[in-house]
Amino acid sequence: MNLINVALDVPLMRCFSYSHSDILPIGTRVLVEFGKKPMVGFVWEINLDENTLDYDIQKIKPILQVFPEIITKDILDLVKFTTNYYHYPLGQTLFNAIPGLMRKPKILPVLDEVFSLTAIAQTNSPHLKSKKQQELYRVLTKSVLDKSAIKAIIGATYLKIIKAWQEKNILIATQTTVIPLLIQNKIKLNPEQQVIFDQISQNFQHYHPSVLYGITGSGKTEVYLQLIEQVIHNGAQALVLVPEINLTPQLLQRFKQRFPNVSMHILTSNVTDHERLSGYLGTQVGTKQIIIGTRLAVFTPFKHLGIIIVDEEHDQSFKQNDGLHYMARDLAVWRAKTIGIPIVLGSATPSLETLYNVKLNKYTLYKMGERAIENARLPIIKLIDLNVNPLIDGLTAIAACEIEKRLETQELSLVFINRRGYSPIVVCYECGWAGSCQNCSTNMVYHKGVARLKCHHCGWNMPVPKACPKCKNQYLHTIGQGTQKIEEGLATRFPNARIYRIDQDTTNTKVAWNELYQKIHKHEVDILVGTQMLAKGHDFHNLTLVVGLNIDSGLYSYDFRAPELLFTQLTQVAGRSGRGVKAGLVLLQTHYPKHELYQYLIRHDFGGFINYLFAQRKALQLPPYSFYVLLRASGHELYKVMEYLNKVFIFAEKFKPAGLVGIYPPVPAIIQRLKNRERGQILFYSQQREVLHGFLNQLTVEIPRIKPKYDISWILDVDPLEI
Ligand code: ADP
Ligand code: ZN
Ligand code: ZN
Questions:
Q1: Of 3, 110, 387, 581, whose CB neighbour count within 10 A is largest?
Q2: CB crowding 160-170: b at 16 or more within 10 Å, else e
Q3: How many helices and strands in the chain, by DSSP H and E?
Q4: Are residues 148 and 93 in the same domain?
Q5: Is the CB of 189 within 6 Å of ligand 1?
C-alpha cells in the first residue's frame, strides 16, 4: 500500500493522505472521499515516510477511482509558485487553474478528433461527384477539421462520409497538422520591426523578457504575428494573453487570416465548459498551436511552449480581484523564465512596474516610434479650459463646433465619458435623500430607458421612485452625467446626426460589435458615445475626432495609481483617432489645464510622465520602490471587522521583523460596504520582497488561531492594484 497526498478544493494550506495499491504519477486526477462526500483531487506527492503522517494510519481511506487525466509538471510547478506567492490554499489554487469539467467526479468526454487529408489525397485529388464533398476536399487541402466543422459542410451524413473517406484512404484522424503551414497576408516588416524581430527570434531558446513599447498603430501586432509564425514553424506553440475587452473579432480575424490552417484555441470567459476542456487537453497534447486568451489562459498546459505574448501588458484586467488574487502577466513572466523562452510585453503605455524592471536591466526595451502606416501621424491633443468655457449638456462650444465640422465632412467623432447610465446621482433637494444601494455604500446610477436605479458594484436595482422615498417631494434631481445623458444632449444639439452609444448596456456582445463595425464601415454612424470599452484595441475607420469629458477625477484620488491609469486611458482613447491617413484631433475638457499630467499628455511625452511618476513614488516609497500586501477582511458589521483586524494588527506588530516590514493600522475600505459585507483592511509593506513573504508565511499560519467570533472572512491581496 502506498500513501498518496492529494490536493483537494478546500480552503486549507495542505494536502490530504489516501492509500492506493500503486504509486500514481504526480498530477493524476483521482476520486476520493472527503468527510462523507466523494471529491475530485489531484495527486500532489507520494508520501514515502509514514512517520510524517499527522493522521492515524488506520483511518486512511483508499483512493476510490483513478481517472486518465494528468496535470502536467509545468502546471503543477506554476501552481506551487502561485500558492506560495499569493498565500492562497494549495488545492484551491490548483482548482482555479483547471477547466470546470475536470472538477466533476465523472469520466470526461473524449477529445474531439481532428481529420486531415492523407499525403496521397493531398497530391492526387480524388474523384468526387457531390458538390458538398468537393467543398470538403477543398477546405481540407488548407486545414485540418474536427467533426463539427465537417458536419457544417456535409450535413447530417457527415459520419458516413468520414468513415467512407477513411476506408478509401483519403482522410486520416490526426493529432497534429500534417499539411504545410499556410501563411497569408504577410507584410514586409519595416526596418524598425525587423531589428526587434531579429533580436527576439535569436533568443528563442532562452528566457528573454522584452518590452515592446510602441504607440497604437506602430505595428506591434505584426511583430507578434511574425514571431509566432517562426515559433510554429519550429514546431512549438504560442500563448497570447490579451485583456478580455481586446479579444475583438478584428484581432481574431487577423490571426485566422494569417494562419488559416493553424489550430487555435480561444479562451474567453464565455466559452462553454466543453470547449474549454477540449482546448485545454488539445494544447496539452500539442494539437492546438496558438492559444489566445484572457488571464486564465496563463494556466494552460503546453506540450512545447515557444513564446508568450502579453498584449496591452499594462491592463489591470490581468489581475484577478476575487478568490485567488493573481496577476497573469507576472505569472506569465515566471513561466517564461522557468521554461527558458522569450516573453514579449507589448503596450503603448507600459506599466510602471514593467518599466521599473527595464530600469533594473531585467527586461529589454524595444521602442517603436513611427506609426506603421506611412503618413499616419500622432493625434494633436488640446485641452479645453472649463474655467472659461461653459458647458452646455456636458459639451463646450469648442468641442461642439469640431463635431459639427466632422458632420459636414462625414468623418467620425468619438465622445468619451467613463460612466455608463444616465447620471450617477439622484437626489432630493428638499430633504437631502440620495439614491444609494441597499447592499453597498455607493450611489445608484440612473438608467433612463429602463427607468431604474442600478448599482454598478453589485447589480442590485430598483425602479426610479415617483417621489422622494423620504419626504414624498415629487421633484427628484439628477447630478452628473453618464453616457445616456450625453447621448441625449448630442441628439438634441445635432438632430440629424446618427449617434451610437457603446457601453456595457448596449454593446456587450460579439454580435453588437460586428453590427457596429458594419455600420461604421458603411458610413452609417456619425458620432460614437462611450465608456472605456471604446478606448481599447478597436480600430475605427474614419475616426478623426475624440472628445474626452469628465476626465479630472483621476488627478486627485486616494489611490496612488489613479494618475497612471488616467494617463494610460487617455493615451489609449487618443490613439483611436487618426489611424488611417487623416490626422486626428483630441479635445480634453478639464478644470486643471495646467496640471503636469496633461502637459505631458499633450506633448505625447510618456517617457517624461513616467520619470515624473518614478520620482513621486520614490519620494513616498510607494510601489515599485516597495512591496505591498493588503489583508482584506469582511463581515456583517463594521465594528466587528475592525475589532478582528485590530487583534491581527497587534499580533502582527509583535512578531514582524522590526525595521524591515511596516504595517499600517486597520482602516475601513474606501467602498466600505460592498455586496452586503462591511470591509476593512491592513496594509503590510517592505522594501524586501522575500522578507515580506517570509513574514506573511508565518502570519497566515497564525491568523486562523485568532479566531473571529463572527462570520469574518479574510484574504491576502499580494501586489494589490487598488488600495
Ligand atoms: P499595433 O499592434 O502596434 O497597434 P499593428 O500591428 O496593428 O499595430 O499595425 C497597425 C497597422 O499597420 C495595421 O493595419 C497593420 O496591418 C499595418 N502594418 C503593420 N506593420 C506594417 C508594415 N511593416 N508595413 C505596412 N503596414 C504595416
Ligand atoms: Zn426628499
Ligand atoms: Zn450595490
A1: 3
A2: ebbeebeeeeb
A3: 20, 30
A4: no
A5: yes
Sheet strands side by side (includes 713-718): 661-674, 677-686, 627-635, 713-718
Q: Which ligand is nearest to the CA of 461?
A: 3
CATH of the domain at 20: 3.40.1440.60
Instruction: Evaluate whether residue 440 is within a structural domain.
Output: no
pLDDT at 184: 86
Kindly list the distances between the CA atom of residue 412 and the CA atoms of 245, 409, 520, in Å, as whole numbers in the listed order. Answer: 22, 9, 8
- 472 lies in some domain: no
Whether 373 maps to a domain, the answer reads: no
Both 572 and 649 in one domain: the answer is no
Cα separations in angstroms, 320 against 148, 331, 478, 480, 677: 33, 12, 34, 30, 19
Contacts of 191 (CB under 8 A, 6+ apart): none
Nearest-CA neighbor of 261 among 171, 187, 184, 153?
A: 184
HSE-up of 23 (CA within 13 Å, CB side)? 5
**pLDDT score recorded for residue 331:** 98
**Which tens digit of pLDDT belongs to each residue from 639-669?**
999 999 999 999 999 889 988 999 999 999 9
Ranges of beta strands (E only) in 153-236 are 171-174, 208-214
Question: Which of helix, strand or coil describes residue 578?
Answer: coil
Q: What is the pLDDT of residues 156-182, one digit of tens each?
A: 898 899 999 988 888 887 755 555 678
- The end-to-end CA distance of the chain, in Å, is 51
Mutation choice for ligand 1 from 189, 193, 222, 242, CB with most ligand atoms inside 8 A: 222
Phi/psi region, residue 614 (left: phi>0; alpha: psi -120 to 50; beta: rest), is alpha
Instruction: Indicate the residue among 615, 642, 664 that finishes a domain.
Output: 615
Task: Residue count of the chain, please give it.
Answer: 723
- Structural domain tally of the chain? 5
Structural domain range at position 133:
114-174
Same domain, 497 and 568: yes
Residues 229 and 347 in one domain: yes
Q: Does 10 share its domain with 127?
A: no
Residues that place a CB less than 5 A from ion ligand 2: 428, 430-431, 433, 468, 470-471, 473
Q: Give the domain-ending residue among 591, 615, 639.
A: 615
Which of 63-67, 145-149, 533-537 shows the lowest mean pLDDT across its residues? 533-537
Q: Do 202 and 78 belong to one domain? A: no
232 lines ligand 1 (CB under 6 A): no
CB 564 within 8 A of CB 353: no
Q: Distance, CA 13 to ligand 1 centroid (Å)? A: 47
CA 484 – ligand 2 centroid, Å:
25
Question: Quick one: 357 and 271 in the same domain?
Answer: yes
Instruction: Give domain status of residue 487, yes or no.
Output: yes
